[in-house]
User: What shape does this take?
Amino acid sequence: MRAAGHAPRRGRAELLCVAAAQRPPPRSPPPRQGPGAGPGGGPALRLPLALERLAELWRRVSPTDACAEPRGSSSLGRRVRVLVNRFALRLGPQFTGAHVYAVSVTPRGGEPQPAAPELRARAVAAVARERGWPDGSWQFDAPAGRLFSLAPLAPPDGGADVALPAAGGAPEAVLRVTLAPDPAARLPAAPSGGPGDAAPLQALGLLLRASLCAALPQAIPAARVMLLPPGSAPRPAAPPASTSRGGHGGRGGGSRGGRGGRGPPGGGRGGAPGDALGPLQLWTALAAGAKPTEMGWTLQLDTSRGAVLPAGELAELLVGGAGGAASPAELCGSRAKLAAAESLVKGAKVQVRYPTGAQSRVVRGLDARPPARYTFKPPDGSTTTVAAHWAAAHGVTLAHGHDWPCVMVSARAAIPLELCAVAAPQPRRALNERQTAELIKTAALPPEVRLRAIRAIVAGQLSGFRLRLLQAWGVSISPEPLEVPGRVLPDALLECGGGTCAEPSNQGAWRPPARAVTPARLQRWVVINLGGAALRPGVDVLLAQLVAQLRAAGGSVAPPEHVAGGGGGRAGGARSALEAAAAAAGGRPQLVLVVLPERSSAQYGELKGAAAALGLVTQVVVAPRVGLAPGRVELRPAVAANLALKVTAKAGGASWQLPGGPRAWAGGLCEAPLQVLGIDVGHAGAGGGPRRRPSVAAVVGSLDAGASRYAAAVSEQSGGEELVLGLADMAAQVMAAHAAANGGAPPRSLLVFRDGVSESRYAAVIREEVAALRAAAAAVAPRGAAPPKVRRGALPGGGRDAVGARLTFVVVSRSHGLRLLPHPDDPSACGPDRGGNVPPGTVVDRGVTAPLAAEFYLNCHAGIQGTNRPARFNVLVDEIGLSQDGLQLLCFHLASTHAACARTIAVPAAVRYADKAATLGAFTGGVGAWREVQAPAPGVPARAWRPLQAAQRALARTPGPRDGRAAPPAAARPAAAARRRGSSSGSTGAAARPRPVLARSQAPEEDAAVASQAPVDDAAVTQFDVDSGKAEQLAGVGELGPREDDVLPDSLADAITDAAAATASAINSGVLRCQVEILLPEFWDPISGPIFPNKGDQERFWRMTRRFVEALGAALGAGGGGADGGGGGGVKAIYPDAGVAAMLSYQWGDRSFAIDSLNARRPVSPDDELIVLCCPDPPGAEEAQRAVRQVGEQDEAAGSMERPIVLFNQRLSSGDVGIGLNARRLRSTFLQRFNVTYSLRPVGEVGTVFRRYPGLWKVFVEEPALPGRYRLAAEQPNRPAGEALDLIIMTALDPDAAAAAAAGGGGAAAAPKGLLESLGSTMASMQRFMRSLSQ
Assistant: This one.
């Protein structure tokens, strides 16, 4: 039956598909021939021979610790000579003997708060003028408050007062400047690789910037670069035709300007740069910075391009950037032109011409209303126009008050356009897509041209670094770039279909294989053509070629369904078209191929967001990019082949993979099974405060032995946060997916690539993210499994005994500015690409690497345009024990597994997938909401990337380690284990066999004679003794042998002891932020929190916290803090308010821990070894966060390891105070850092959820035939809740009803309960399950 919206021309498409399948598919032109080009480029390598070559290669790689190897021990690969854009830098005695001062600038007579950096700089400059400090003899870092001086300065007694005048001569501020010698700062002649390098780097940065400003007076200082105006920098000459390799359009700056050129002007695509840039100018950007290396200090210098808004009348500039406007008057009648003009100048500084003089203002936007029609209310309450105001207040008659727009300098302040001008050129960073593309094209200089440009600047404007200021400070810089030893590693061997292997041979590309190693199986897929009928003929041809390619590769592909998507509608049209696609496929299609009529980032985002919400896997094709246009079909031969690679991956197949499993392509160094992880955080917005858009964190992990298929977990977190919050749960999900795809065996070795983290956060990454990964590995490890053998390393955090898997953690970065340039005298150092870059596989690990760091630079790919940026790899932790050669080889080979193209990419495929998952995850997120989605990316089977369904999204919104609703990540549930009744034959009336309550790890005790007792009545439920460790014995209880529900506690004391033991185990494993929750229905309301309906309840509630704190302290061996509450070291318990803390301090005089309250000014002291926040409530949320921050600040100031913090029965977000913005912020910034170590909670009427670190989350349901006993219904790494938990319990109790509910069937089984009935059932179940614990 044909669905609505189904296109009527499917028959023609079927015929085309059948016809195309009967002829060989078109092939892309072969790559440059080289030795062993692989399939299509030479004789294919058979798989057995490839495995032999790999085994021989890995025999040359020794399995030793990468971090323990001496420098220069790596030797694999052929040697090449490489130049880098760094220059040797030496520090003379003038620099090393300079004096360092700490500067404090505060308002005089006011609060002792530091002034803004700009005021600090002006105040210190005023003091320098007053005291006659020689120019150039001192440098001041205003943000850091540190001053460097060649001569000793006499600090003024009590400080110097400085009055900073404002415009008009009135004093703006009176500041007090205080100087004090900084004895901790040293300026060594050689870098040490530690914190001592901060001061010399700071001083060198100030000197270099001041020297460049003096040498380049026309340059504009911008963020991290100096912008040189056109004509001031020498223009690099184009290389000779023989070396430019510019056959297809002058890549590299050749004189030919044919198709695809990406070189400097003169050899690019047609059209002048001004066509896209408008009035913007392209200036040369010069970036300079000091870098510490193992060989000494160096200067890194690079050249690029930057967009600059020139000086001139603002009206003329707007016309040039308005997309064809003839005058400013046209901006008032065209929203599109007004928006284009506004994007050009928004944020720029303009001078407004007042009769009394010009004043500077910042452009906030444009308003289409001219001054004569823009009305506002002045302070007197009347209504007037902008034109009338200027005429009355300033005596200015506007010439264009009726036809030119207004310039908005604030939300309510409008300025006439004709009075505004740009006084000085200004850098512009906010560019549209066309402007960005033009900027990249002109900045892409080939290595040879880039090297000549840098040398010309050094010899010209910088006078060979013979600059007066540098010489005065004793800084000498070599004018020649450094030469470093490089090596070209052996390339990967890639297994294809038919038992063959592709061999890129350091060419960076290979011909797509004739057959895929895992062909695609597409039986139900849909095509949406948003271009309408005009594009339908071209789309049919493209589909015919695509189907032919997939079938030729061994795939089974059915003809697709077609859905008319309209004429390229956006937003709502995209979602409706995807819904129609699902309907046309008769269910959820395996793939939806969407054809866009034009390139649009907004429309692409809307499509991906709608697809993720509907759970669809999509592949987007932009018609002009593949040669499709109305009435014109110019498909290039490689289009269908490349599209087939992407479709194969998204359909669950793989075109190629690393052969033989990890023991072959990793040399057996990694304990199998091995999982490759990629981690990244994407920041979608800017600005601070509550309006900042949330960041998106992504974790991807390989699923198969060939590292070709990946699964992902994506979550939102607080905007701008660089660390991955809640990494433990996300990593556990992808590890569990790996186990599910490999017969239940979790990974034993983890090779983790972390993208996008700065060097200043390395310590935090080791402290938090590495610990979270260890916790995740421990959570998915099978019970009773022996820990893997760990080769101990010398890096911080390395060598710690792993619980579930060995871990190697590598940070990958490309934002370092280093360039690898082939040496002109070494022809073998030039790679195969047209630009003349170094070959793929070129590695440099000496000469430019940081001191004491296990790092290297690796160029994995062949350049497409410009000079390649190698990836920098920093090994933070190595428990696997890879050698330098082995790790470098693995990183290079994993860059060949990207499924979207038959080329090596710049980084390992896992890094690219994590980046793409974070980018696509941003399309599905909402501000302030936390959710967990999976986004499609190449190389991932459809089921692994399918977005979460309604039940799963409900699970993601429930409290977890990254959430904080009424119940936080720990869930409490009682277990009547001590009163479990067995009813098997022969056991009726038999005596029970009590198990030890407080010593779970001891050997089973001998049978004991137990007297029969009557069951405890309901009236006695609340009269229990927290300190009692005795399990009640009941009549008729029989011993049934070992059962899965034996993990449940026997009593409340048993639960507290188990929670303390689990938390201590987590802390000893490196999990330093833990969370425990044991909820008793007598004391705890699911919405409001603690309730004390009976006499003595409050006392018993606090006694439970004492029992836990003492048990945890004993398990960890922490000393007591004394009974005075002052905290003399050991364990400290912090209670919600001072009243509770005082009462408990008085009552518990014999306690073994210190007590304080969240209300105290400093509730924690540096001597506290363990901090337990007991039952913090919503009013104390800010204080709880402050206390945790104080712990971190104290540990950082002392330079010691981070101390553990435990949340016990926290209620920081409650139904009584709502779960609005503040609660969401709390979840995203605070609770995400705490891992669940013990969880016990009843759900529904017949089930319970339980977790004990490091085990998985377990769902138990009651055995109907065995009252008091429970059977295991589910076990998973992430916490079950919401609809997912309901489905688990329904499946365990009534599989037929669960299947009907999952299929959307009706019936009585699917009828939902009413609200009051559900609440009543929940409360009844809580009392039922907790009754045994409350005796």
Q: What stands out?
A: The first helix runs from residue 10 to 21.
